[in-house]
Amino acid sequence: MDFSVLISEFPTLTVDGIALGFIYVLIALGYTMVYGVLRLINFANSEVFMIGTFASILIATQLFGHTIESEPLTGFKLVYTMLAMLLGAMIISGLVSVLVEIVAYRRLRAVTTNRLTSLISAIGVSIFLAEGVRILTSSAPMGAPRLLDKITLVTIFGADIRIDILLVIVFAIILLVCLDIFVNKTRLGKGIRAVSMDYDTAKLMGININKVISTTFLVGGIGTGAAAFFYVTVYEVTVFRIGFELGIAAFTAAVLGGIGNIRGAFAGGLALGLIEMYSSAIFGTQWKSITAFVILVLVLLFRPNGIFGESLQQARV
Amino acid sequence: MTNPVILELKDLTMQFGGVKALNQVNLSVKKGEILALIGPNGAGKTTVFNVVTGVYKPTNGEILFNGSSLKGKSRHRITKSGIARTFQNVRLFGDMTALENVLTATDVHNKSGLMGAMFTSPRSRREESASRKKAQEILEFIGIANRSDQLARNLPYGDQRRLEIARAMGTNPQLLLLDEPAAGFNPSEKKALGELIVKIRNSGYTVLLIEHDMSLVMDISDRVAVLDFGEKIADDLPKLVQDNPKVIEAYLGVPADAS
Amino acid sequence: MTFNLRDYGANIWARANKWQRYLMALVFIVAAFSLPLLENTFFNTPNTPFVSVLFYPIGLYTLMALGLNVVVGKSGLLDLGYVAFYAVGAYTAGLLGASLKLNTWEVMPIGIALAMLSGLILGAAVLRLKGDYLAIVTLGFGEIIRITALNSPAIGASMGITDIANPPTTFGFKFDLDNPESYYWTILIIIIITIMAIRILSIRRPGRAWEAIRQDEDVAELMGVNIYKYKLWAFVFGAAVGGAAGVLFASESMFISPNIFKLEVSIFILAFVVFGGMGNIWGVILGAVLLSYIPERIRFLSDARMLIFGLVLIIMMNLRPDGLLPRKKREKIKSDKKDSK
């Protein structure tokens, strides 16, 4: 244990933690929204993220022909390349997420009430996607070209605010605001909320359940895809097994905030991002991957409904 | 009646958020009687069952069973101490046979556990055969012995309701809580069920009954308590309750003299 | 009505008298013991000696699937950290075998006891949680234990433990690389004992309690079942089986390290259970045998094995959501006859 790093690097850790936290928040959407409507863990969301990271890099390298050695871009070119990467990752992840729902959940929903069956088919999809990418990439990590020159914009209390970090934070906030408007104001969003509150009644009221569920997976996938682009922008590398680690952390974030609760996912993601950064400064990075689990276990043991509630245990009785 | 009180609710209040499902309810059930608990939908009848069996912790008040408080007792201990119930919507163990359903309940008084079962201890063997005998007797008593090896979910509806009673009796209770046991029955089935409940009472059980069918209630119960919006508004002999203006008002929604 | 192999088999069994049953069981057991004879036939595995495959993965995974089935299939408790008990057994063998100079058979009861103890501790902590929360917490615990082991030099950290002793020669059977069938037969004996224990428990009080908890936990409790206690027992029973598998694995492979006990193992075993038919011993065995054998058999596709595994899971769950051999849907013969009268 060593607190000196924590103290000296506190501002930098905080900024990095917030950026990581926003990535978690966006992935957590894929878990928390699906849990809201289906009361099922969207096990394959981790692979939706993984595919998003590859999609984002491949758009830069294949579509725009950039390589790892490419010089950073500037001006208009930079903007449209980055936008293409972001939108591409969002669209592809969204589509994969919808496909996951069709393959792993839709038919089973009609024929069985056994929740484990859907979990196993989702695990099957997860293995299939991860293995497919592993074979295609020969297990090798894939680096992302640095298209954005990572200049430091300002320094606050000794913390460098890099442009990529700022980009993540700004875009994540814009996306979350859009999502909030979508869920609370639009017709489809209201359908999603109705199904989350009471699946059976919503069905009786004539809500097209399949459409609502597909939309939920699409929106969750789009958020996860955006997270994938941000991850690639900040960390500049991906590998076939990236989904597992990030997925578990994001799921923890969702549980932390009270799964099924979109605003809870926001708080949970930020909290987890910060805690992970601080604790790896204290205990050493080899323990970083364990932080999410320890927090997850502690939260569930002492506050089974998450910090912000939205009890799902009662929902199930 | 001079019979001792077996179950006593004292100032029982159950609050969910802002809603008082039960408000200072006092009720005593005497040993050996059939007490019917009636009232309009949402009056709090099933809540009484849920509080007594430990599903909910009461916000206020006390429940005494045979003179001792049930406070803080876990659900299975309450059952073991002699209170058993059925459910408004049938909740049998569908993938088990009728006999196994009852056996699950009779197990509550058995001492042998997993190790005894695994190594076939003499006690486990003795208890297992005694349980089977007893469960079979209960099924015969209820009149569904011919169904004992069928899966509960394949039984006809009426037999499922009867099996619920049999399963509750399996726990060897002193007090049976029956939650609308005749729901969905036709008049002749209701009559048969009424006779069965009387037969159950006559063989030594005390029955607290929730029922909507007034003719059944009037036929078989010794006393009727009426709940309305979580408050007890009457508690008397069936005949007297029937003419109680408050009760008529609760059911019809208008004062009795206006009708 | 669709044809249900499980019911078909169960009907044959139900119609048989006592001696026919003994005979059937005997034939089955003899056949299981003779499986090593299939080496060098169509069933041979291309890259790994067939008899070794019978022990690991087939035998070990079957055993663990049986143990996990008590937890998931019978009691309905979704445990995604089952590999932890396997690890406890294996590390007990690795650490105690060397330090206390105990042989495999002496370590076995200790490994099982320690696994049961960890099942008790873990269960006591997490079994108040329900459903998916339980799944995630058990998953979390499994990973915490693995990562802690990975960072603990006292138990070898990422290097693990090497040179674990093979079991001693017992009743004239040698346990070494040249005699893989000894391991297979040992695991087969443990599997048979486990099956017998589960069958006995199933028809008695613990089996009924588990079944009631799985079907409707709230009602079970109201009918007097001490659900916490029986959930714990299910956990502890499953842990014991996992521990036994771990001890045997460590003494056969002679080497263990934290990365052998990854989350994937828990998920595979769960997949075997669900794939075969939760709650039904024979379904689970079939699921475990098929899913652990097929990837070995088709090793020529070696790189795509797991891809196909994932695909098989998706297709099978969509075609047979209750598994290959689902739990019993039939009623006993006796009542069938009564009805037809």
UniProtKB/TrEMBL annotation, chain A:
It is found in: Cell membrane. GO terms for molecular function: L-isoleucine transmembrane transporter activity; L-leucine transmembrane transporter activity; L-phenylalanine transmembrane transporter activity; L-valine transmembrane transporter activity. It is a multi-pass membrane protein. Keywords: Amino-acid transport, Cell inner membrane, Cell membrane, Membrane, Transmembrane, Transmembrane helix, Transport. The chain crosses the membrane at residues 20-41, 48-68, 80-104, 116-136, 156-183, 212-232, 238-259, 290-308. GO terms for cellular component: plasma membrane. GO terms for biological process: D-alanine transmembrane transport; L-alanine transport; L-isoleucine import across plasma membrane. The keyword Transmembrane applies. CDD domains: TM_PBP1_LivH_like. Belongs to the binding-protein-dependent transport system permease family. LivHM subfamily. This is Unannotated protein. It comes from freshwater metagenome.
From TrEMBL, chain B:
Pfam families: ABC_tran, BCA_ABC_TP_C. Residues 7-254 form the ABC transporter domain. Signal peptide: none annotated. Keywords: ATP-binding, Nucleotide-binding, Transport. The keyword Transport applies. GO terms for molecular function: ATP binding; ATP hydrolysis activity; L-isoleucine transmembrane transporter activity; L-phenylalanine transmembrane transporter activity; L-valine transmembrane transporter activity. PROSITE patterns: ABC_TRANSPORTER_2 (PS50893). GO terms for biological process: D-alanine transmembrane transport; L-alanine transport; L-isoleucine import across plasma membrane; L-valine import across plasma membrane. One of its GO terms (cellular component) is plasma membrane. The keyword Nucleotide-binding applies. SUPFAM superfamilies: P-loop containing nucleoside triphosphate hydrolases (SSF52540). This is Unannotated protein.
From TrEMBL, chain C:
This is Unannotated protein. One of its GO terms (cellular component) is plasma membrane. Keywords: Cell membrane, Membrane, Transmembrane, Transmembrane helix. The keyword Transit peptide does not apply. It holds the Pfam family BPD_transp_2. The chain crosses the membrane at residues 21-38, 50-71, 83-102, 108-127, 134-162, 182-201, 232-255, 267-293, 300-319. It is found in: Cell membrane. It is a multi-pass membrane protein. CDD domains: TM_PBP1_LivM_like. GO terms for molecular function: branched-chain amino acid transmembrane transporter activity. Coiled coil: none annotated.
